[in-house]
Amino acid sequence: MSRAKPTPIPLCELTPGQQADFFALLAEKTKGTTREGKPYYACRFRDARRGAAFMVWQDSPRYEECERDWQVGQFYKIRAVYGEHERYGPQLTEVQAIRPVNDADRADGFDPLQFVEHSRYDAATMFAELKTLATTHIADEPLRRLVLTLLDRHADALQRLPATRDRFYPFAGGLLEHTLSVTRSCLQLVERYTAHYTELRPPLNRDLVVAAAMLHDLGRVLEFGEAMPGVSPAYTVPGRMVGHLILGRDLVRDTARELGDVNPELVQMLEHIILSHLVLPEWGSPRLPLVPECLILHHADDLDAKLEMYARCLSRDRSEGPFTERDPVLNRNLFKGRNV
Prior knowledge:
5 strands, 5-stranded antiparallel β-sheet, 40% helix, alpha+beta
């Protein structure tokens, strides 16, 4: 009597130590060399909600197969043991079988859409709201035109790219979701503090805060390259060499010069806020913030990024006990054993 074929289990549902069959996308395959000069491949398989690393060393029986046949962007059916390393996070060990998926796998539940993590909100709707906020809340007409021009020129990338590759909003449409969320928060904060600090002359510039919120991460559209669905975009050469802050500043500067009618002082302050909104040099900021509007953007941006990472960790953790597994990005175990 033949043994029943194991039913595949989603990678995101596996628990540490569990062996199972599952479908996964090969999202990354990077060749490296050990200190002893031996080659290896660092691979990363994923579904829409979890990624797991798999190291293929030169002496592994999978090495030649990996080097010759495994392709980034290809879907595979895998039988392996899932684990979670304290430092390196989710891992695949003891890979017993691996092959490309085929048409017959659809009967076992394979669906390519399960491997494309994306924003829970419709990208077109978010983009339309962002443009409406610009039209409604940026009173200075040349500055408003600058913002709308940049949004329209990079509409496709804004709606397609993640905010980051592996930290906050690391999914398709994440860049737009993050930008819209930060803009909403900045609008509330600038209204609150403009009313509170009436002694400031000139007062806090709402137009500047809103424009900066919408454009603060625009350099990501040049920092990241194209990517297949479900695969993290690679960094471009300018992305590696220069980074998104300076790339975003350059987009603003070049477009302002092209349009020719934006107040030069507004452009200068907008460039400064884009360059300094990360505040700390160790976070990548080349300058410290010198205008109060930058503080509003910084804290709205940082809070939005941190809350997204916390929410994703807490909502997806499946471990036993009152604490999550250690999150490799946050570098901590979050408390989830609360009743209030």
